[in-house]
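Cont'd.
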Amino acid sequence: MPEAVARLKDIRRRMDDDRPEIHHDDTEAGELTIIEQRLSGFEILYREAWLRKLVILAVLALIWEIYGRTLNNDLLFPTFSATILAFFTGLMDGTLPAAAWSSGKVLLMGYGLGIVLAATLTALAMASRIGTDFLETMTSMFNPLPAIALLPLALIWFGLGNASLVFVLVHSVTWAIALNTHSGFLGVSRTLKMVGRNYGLRGPAFIMKILIPAAFPSILTGLKIGWAFAWRTLIAAELVFGVSSGSGGLGWFIFENKNMLDIPKVFAGLLTVIIIGLVVENLIFRTIERRTIERWGVQH
Amino acid sequence: MPEAVARLKDIRRRMDDDRPEIHHDDTEAGELTIIEQRLSGFEILYREAWLRKLVILAVLALIWEIYGRTLNNDLLFPTFSATILAFFTGLMDGTLPAAAWSSGKVLLMGYGLGIVLAATLTALAMASRIGTDFLETMTSMFNPLPAIALLPLALIWFGLGNASLVFVLVHSVTWAIALNTHSGFLGVSRTLKMVGRNYGLRGPAFIMKILIPAAFPSILTGLKIGWAFAWRTLIAAELVFGVSSGSGGLGWFIFENKNMLDIPKVFAGLLTVIIIGLVVENLIFRTIERRTIERWGVQH
Amino acid sequence: EVATVRLAKQFGIGYLPLTLIEEQGLLEKHAQEAGLELRTEWLRFTGGSGMNEALLSGNLDIAAGGVGPMLTIWARTQNNLQVKGIAALESMPLYLVTTDPEVQSLADFNRSHKIALPAVKTSIQAITLQMAAEKYLGEGRHDALDAFTVSMGHPDAQLAMMGGRSEINAHFGAPPFQNQELKDERAHKVLDSYEVLGGPHTFNVIWAKNEFVENNPTVMAALMAALEESIGFIRDNPDKAARIWAEVEATNLSHDEVVDLITDERVNWTTAPQGILPYVEYMSRVGLISASTDDWRDVFFDMVHDTEGS
Amino acid sequence: MQSRQPLLTVQGVTLQYKTPHHLITATYRVSFDVMQGDRFILLGPSGCGKSTLQKAVGGYMTPTEGEMRLKGRKITQPGPDRMMVFQEFDQLLPWKTVKQNVAFALHASKRMSRREAEEKAMEYVSKVGLASFADSHPHMLSGGMKQRVAIARGMAMEPDILLMDEPFAALDALTRRKMQDELLKLWDETKFTVLFVTHSIAEAIKIGNRILLLSPHPGRVKAELNSTTDAQQAIELEQHIHQMLFSHEPEEVEHA
Amino acid sequence: MQSRQPLLTVQGVTLQYKTPHHLITATYRVSFDVMQGDRFILLGPSGCGKSTLQKAVGGYMTPTEGEMRLKGRKITQPGPDRMMVFQEFDQLLPWKTVKQNVAFALHASKRMSRREAEEKAMEYVSKVGLASFADSHPHMLSGGMKQRVAIARGMAMEPDILLMDEPFAALDALTRRKMQDELLKLWDETKFTVLFVTHSIAEAIKIGNRILLLSPHPGRVKAELNSTTDAQQAIELEQHIHQMLFSHEPEEVEHA
Ligand SMILES: Nc1ncnc2c1ncn2[C@@H]1O[C@H](COP(=O)(O)OP(=O)(O)OP(=O)(O)O)[C@@H](O)[C@H]1O
Ligand SMILES: Nc1ncnc2c1ncn2[C@@H]1O[C@H](COP(=O)(O)OP(=O)(O)OP(=O)(O)O)[C@@H](O)[C@H]1O
Ligand SMILES: [Mg+2]
Ligand SMILES: [Mg+2]
């Protein structure tokens, strides 16, 4: 197609330009001064995440208070102030901290074990096809089962008390974390996986050093969900499984006060759960996010 | 550095080679024949996912049966065969299908609403910073709360019956899905997001056409987890909320039979949950995965 | 007055009068006789707290349950909603059953025992156990057994104790669970609530908010009439009553077993509240409730004030 | 011609990346004008801020200093009037086939109906030599093939201004020349404006009519030159640019 | 020299991608031998299977037909004896800084202690001109800078055979020449073997000592040529290769 080429040349000739050429001297990089555009006072405040969150919390508390007052039914839904009062009373007389501590111990144990189990299952799933099928099958079978379904087995295997609670917690934590981790692992870019193998990494080293950091956002989401469901399950399970009196956790605290119709105390118990949730999210999970995901620039 | 360059030329002169040059004629692409390496019979069978899963299920059933027999305690843990028998009896006399249907309706409603709510929250979170904070705060506050905590509000707002159940289900579904969706959205590659904006997509169109397909693996994981927790919550909640006569679902079925100490039937109810879980996973979620994630090559 | 009345039931033979009212349409019948077109809606609950919430949120008119929850809500609502009992359903003994042959009295319980009951500290069984401890072990030792108690639903508790694989070796239950347990030769009775209270006492009661009772005198009258009729029916036709109950309630008991439960000489089908005052006195003394009274009539609406209560 | 309003004016633009721990200045007070119909080249060493400048014109970054105007209107957000061909390989939507990727761009930006979009898409997919891969998903393509789809998409959109970031870098000599010719042919037909990043001086001279030279860290304007079509002048210009860019390394000009 | 054992033998290798709906043959019965110390170039049009061949040598794909042997041992899995520089920009670990990325490769593959790795990493990061970005994370780098880190990593590993897939494609002329020179200098020092994919004929001749020409769809061997260092011969060779590759398009050879 010499013809086409000739035409192209023609085009380009037409564009001849009378703009002057420009040349600049080199500036030294050190001499640069930059004039930044100013932000308004509101914008500066709005940029602070903790401030925005505080405002949200304050608004929610206000809504609660107003709704509680209009409802005016302390036996069903106490006001925010009544709850706060009960909360501080519980805090002062030590019952709430004791209950939270007692629940917290069990929770952390179940959560920790759940993570370990999820890690094992996911590692197996990454290692072989049958492992994948096993994880998928187990998850789709057991994840929908409520904790009460495990009661008989738990009683046989672990008897009453904390061991059974931990068992139930593991059940509620494992599947969610395993699902998220596995899907995160599968989503790791093909190239990164090849890079890892190229270094000669294999098995656990490959998972630890490549897959886990690469799938970290997914894993963290799984951990968050697992954490939340652990709380839910624990509080419900403390009722189903029974507690020997005197050793009850937050679930028991709530149940007992509900039975005695001391509703502000019930809500104080729930508030404790909420506060722990907020603290864990904003101190622990957010810090992890800042140190990892944000620094690595893997979420935008 | 003309010296360096001279040295380089020197190097290259040294490598002169006595290998002959090779030239091939063009083959027509049509003439290609390929001799594939054969697979062994076991390998061919092993490649079938459904077969592997069936084997896993059979092994699990076997373990159950054997453990049940050695335990020999029908009151605590019936054998697999006794459970299957009770399951078919329940199937035949229509009680199990009726209970499953009654639960299923409520479940789907709650699940659907939960998805809608999660979508809304996540959309808000993508639209503005305060939306993100709102989602994060709400999730960390409410996700750990057990369903019983919502009971009073549910009763005030929706009264007894299915509406309240749906409300509780929404609570158990929304946060998990929202968390996964949001983290999926954040993980969408910067370039893809820029491409979407470049097309002039904005707001809902941007979310629908770019973010959702790009974050699909995360969203699907969220949907799976939400699905499982909807079941768990429903079965537990059916007990707390009570029923009007004759309208009980699977949770009620389980409770009633437990009251009658008809443990094989209790396990038949749980087996129904398991079977529904397996069916939904393998028919619905797997199909979606095959049609999307696998075809798009976004998981490896 | 209301056109539809919403009533609650729980599981157990103790709710037999309500079952009969529902099945035979007695409430509708008596309301019609009083010139009121009334519909009923029956709800099932598995525990007292869900039911109380339904009552407080206005989703339920008449609740049914044990004496304990009723006293709790009565004490709590003295200054506002004024919830009170309407009537008793029956007096029935509760047994503490154990499978440990070593245990013959309360004093024999030690750390190796676990006593299952519906809710530690707050259920009627837990309170009765405390009262028993005070009575048999001595003043100030009312909480001596609390450390051995464990919360567990009746079926789970029975399964755990009779299944023999868990630490649970005693159960403070209710009919029909306690009766079934006692049929097994491994189990025997340690405690009888009638002995603790010094006589028969009410097991189940029905209660409502003051507002509902005041606004619906005809309905309440019809309800009382229906109750009387159903109790009369139980007394006169235990066989038929058992049949009806077995038909509508999920049960694995044989007909004869049900009849035995109903006609047990220690069971008294009556609307008259019995043994309420000891409970009120004990619960307020140990601080479980903040109100007290020395007239059982303060705890009930006036429909049963002229019965032989105590 | 001098009197024409510029299509795009970039006025003293400083672009910075703010990360939690660093503040990186990518370009410093860069100014240039792009006229309607220009084939404007950004040329400069790796990391000198070419892609950053393009992203700013694309509307993805707000300058710390200075401003950019398109047709007199300040650039505040991205839009289909400035179509981008990115440097990255992951710019195709993985859930769409090659053809759909091109068609979707046309349809989503409300250029044309779904029907027309399909036809036009197929036309451009053929132009970049991928007709037989029209129904493949992106993950089944080689690096160069992916870039060609992106080029097809950019050209099919016929935007006011086409922003291309090293679009031909992943292509072999033959395919590359074909693509260059396609681009020029298309320009001949529609006289669109293109802002083109490249690291090949020869390509800059062949494709462009005006060339902006940037110096590195942070990117500043070194010179703005006219290109030429005359073969002899082109060689001289190439030498000249070479000298300007490599001035600190007085080495013989070798070709590679 | 002819009598030497080849380091890498590729014998009648057919490579295919199996997707649920397609079966794509990337290369068809490709054979070649790479000797110890070779700078072996794969040259061919976009999509002809160059990257696929490299991935197979890297151990990531199993041939449908034929086999590949490294030092006489059949290739079955990836390993640090064959270090790859991929074509994609996302080959750096995003959670490691530039320096850590290089050091981690050295340490993870058990080449050296963490300490030594750090030092060596810094040395190579400087070689590719990124010393001032040593502590940045990859997402803060430009496309070309990312590729340079990957090059530094590949070279620092000093593997038996270095597999480089269009490593210099994203680099400007100056940086590119520097990198080419670094590569040759390193080769001079350690005489490692390199299998190099490029789409630039000039680069092939400059870098390689032996050049494999592939024809497209599916990739088959067209020719295997010796390179030259003589300037005049180089120009002739370039013309020759040009003709072989572009033979179906009888066009004047234009330079771009
Ligand atoms: N993951 C994959 N799945 C299916 N087909 C693929 C995949 N990767 C590549 N192919 C196909 O294999 C063929 C060769 O691809 P390859 O990436 O090896 O080309 P290449 O020579 O490296 O091209 P380029 O110079 O454009 O990078 C192409 O036709 C491509 O469509
Ligand atoms: N997301 C980012 N965060 C922080 N810094 C960045 C980011 N992207 C680029 N930079 C920095 O901005 C500068 C310019 O980068 P840019 O991508 O514009 O270069 P470029 O001219 O396109 O280079 P190349 O030719 O290598 O693609 C570089 O110093 C780089 O480190
Ligand atoms: Mg760039
Ligand atoms: Mg390639």
